[in-house]
Fold this protein.
Amino acid sequence: MTSDFKIRQAVANDVSDIFSLIQALAEYEKLAHQVTGTAKELRSDLFGSPVNAEAIVAECEHKIVGFALFFANYSTFLTKPGIYLEDLFVLPDYRRRGMAKAMLSYLGKLAVERDAGRLEWNVLDWNQSAIAFYESMGAKVLPDWRTCRVSDSALHKLAKISD
């Protein structure tokens, strides 16, 4: 890791910066219309009770320019906990300095410390630069798995099926 940035665990005072980065990520992915949460809700999820997620930040020039948000998952096949990386993002002007690599390494170390069986995440199929980067870090993009999602009204409908 170079000395022009540092990776650290997020603290409560970082929430507004992290939320701004979430919005920037959504813009980059052309999904800004899907951001319906708030910084207040994020603060509760990261630092309330229960804690629903964790975050690390990349700090450069005395400002937060990147983040990774993650939470615990579980593998029944391995009978071990894992870490699911929900988002990893560095502002475009700060890319190619090793921050994303350092954040992934941080999470790898954390997974090893927690005796996790896996560190997993999704990547958009059009994001070839991210795919190439992840593969260069040792990740295998699984070709036969697809993400399933039930949300909004479909989630409420699903909840009522057995009623």
Notes: The chain has a mean pLDDT of 95. The chain has one domain: 5-159.
